[in-house]
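just leaving the lab so this will be short. below you get a single protein, a line of residues and a line of whole numbers that encode the local backbone shape. id like you to explain what the token line says about the fold, in plain words if possible. thanks a lot i owe you, the record is right below:

…
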Amino acid sequence: MLDRELALGIDIGGTNTVFAIVDSEGNIHFEKSIKTKDFKQPEDLVNEIYNQLQKNSLLQNIIGIGVGAPNGNPFNGNIEFAPNLPWKGIIPLASIIEKKFNKSCKVDNDANIAALGEMKFGVARGLKNFVTITLGTGLGSGIVVDGRVVYGENGFAGEYGHIRVEKEGRVCGCGRKGCLETYVSATGVVRSIREHDSKNQASSILQTIAHPTSLDVVNAAKDGDKFATEILDFTAKTLGESLADFMCFSNPKAFVLFGGLAKIGTSFAENVEKYMNDAALNIYKGKAKVLVSDLHDKNVALLGAAALVFHELKYS
């Protein structure tokens, strides 16, 4: 058993839920991933996490629990109407966790958590004005202005994935049409295989794969597939032009990309930055960088969730 104070960090995503035991220096001592959709009720998920930690004798030194979740409300600890989760409506997640673990729990939006983790342990260390863009099942953004995460009146600032980029565009899980995440998230990239019009589509290797993923698109592009390359360029252009508009709002020093597409490497980020500067107002051109998180292997969301414990629960 570890002889130190520890935090339980939980990252709830539309596909996977990852949880870890983390110390105050950002070292992860235990990490496990489970399928979110395997659990019909949030209580079932919480019970599974508890049982896994109990089995590995990791409950004793936990001083608190931090959770990053889609539509996680930092003011009341609820998940509220998250479109990509199997549980609908308002989920009192912090209350469920506190009842099971008998520990204090802090819930925040998954994208805000990523921003906090990046600011404490990642490429955004030392930056006071930046935005994290998480490209996963959906698109999340965490906004930091003057060294503070922006929450807004009700805790939901930063839902940039639901800024509409096409008036009558793709149907989004939120119920509206044309949201940014339907084009540039991992799910959006897959949709582009079927919905992006191209003369190169018929000859693409992607048409021979029964259920292609965004990784298949990346790999096909690396192999010279013209349609896959076109999809990635379309994705970078859509995201870059949208970030050019974002600069008008918060004037950030950097955008930090995190998630599957960001793992391609610097080439995708450089392409996004090019399109961003092409579309930016003159006063913003060349003023912001598009960076790739260096915390992919450590899971920035888990580190951010742990930071909630050490910096908010412990000292509040």
Observations:
- The chain has two domains: 6-115+298-313, 127-292.
- The mean pLDDT is 92.
- The chain has nine helices and twelve strands.
- The first strand starts at residue 6 and ends at 12.
